[in-house]
Amino acid sequence: QKEVEQDPGPLSVPEGAIVSLNCTYSNSAFQYFMWYRQYSRKGPELLMYTYSSGNKEDGRFTAQVDKSSKYISLFIRDSQPSDSATYLCAMSSNYGGSQGNLIFGKGTKLSVKP
Amino acid sequence: GAVVSQHPSWVICKSGTSVKIECRSLDFQATTMFWYRQFPKQSLMLMATSNEGSKATYEQGVEKDKFLINHASLTLSTLTVTSAHPEDSSFYICSAEPPGQGYEQYFGPGTRLTVT
């Protein structure tokens, strides 16, 4: 079993739809959970960061972490064509430095149609 | 926000030659930088962790003699792919960690390497 599992999609939704992206993981030591957005042929950019379990909201984006189920989600409300990208989940058991290695999911490719 | 640049953005080289990729943190000092490789439709795979002034730490399965990493200053890390082969063709991405923000890595735009 891979440490982080993420459905690669592709996922296609109409503009204005609510998008739900998910990852599951197996390592119970993970405490830091991130969502990155990556446009084609570009480096990832950090969207959301959550420590331990709970919800976090930033504008149209909401991140949820359920450590008991080893399941994290990213919700995008009122999706826009500019949200079309690949979304990567990432997680770590340590707080940065040489020990803060991120383990990434494969990424879910999202397409928002106008 | 913190900016990380990479150069070149795209390079084509012949099999057997070496290629150097630069990663720079433009507006902050990074004691730790990371090098990733991403194959098409695959996730980012960590290759090595680069610490300023010390030897890089390589992930299992990554040949340290083939992928030479130098982190000579707090704003520059380089990855040299030596004796490149077609199977080394990939998207190489670096990231840098600002001091005091251990959870956050800022990624460069990536370098696409094609070995012919």
List the helices and strands and how they pair.
The complex is a heterodimer of chains A (114) and B (116).
Chain A: E1 4-6, E2 11-14, E3 19-25, E4 32-38, E5 45-51, E6 54-58, E7 61-66, E8 71-76, E9 85-92, E10 103-104, E11 108-113
Parallel strand pairs in A: 2-11
Antiparallel strand pairs in A: 1-3, 3-8, 4-5, 4-9, 6-7, 7-8, 9-10, 9-11
Chain B: E1 4-7, E2 10-13, E3 19-25, E4 32-38, E5 44-51, E6 57-58, E7 67-73, E8 76-81, E9 90-97, E10 106-107, E11 111-115
Parallel strand pairs in B: 2-11
Antiparallel strand pairs in B: 1-3, 3-8, 4-5, 4-9, 5-6, 7-8, 9-10, 9-11
Describe this structure in words.
The complex is a heterodimer of chains A (114) and B (116). In chain A, the strands form 2 sheets. In chain A, strands 2, 4, 5, 9, 10 and 11 form a 6-stranded mixed β-sheet that branches. Chain A has strands spanning 4-6, 11-14, 19-25, 32-38, 45-51, 54-58, 61-66, 71-76, 85-92, 103-104, 108-113. By secondary structure, chain A is an all-beta fold. Helix content of chain A is 0%, strand content 54%. In chain A, strand 6 and strand 7 form a beta hairpin. Chain B has strands spanning 4-7, 10-13, 19-25, 32-38, 44-51, 57-58, 67-73, 76-81, 90-97, 106-107, 111-115. In chain B, strands 2, 4, 5, 6, 9, 10 and 11 form a 7-stranded mixed β-sheet that branches. In chain B, strands 1-3-8-7 form a 4-stranded antiparallel β-sheet, with no helix packed on it. The radius of gyration of chain B is 13 Å and the shape is globular. Chain B starts with a strand and ends with a strand. At the A-B interface, strand 4 and strand 5 of A face strand 5, strand 9 and strand 10 of B.
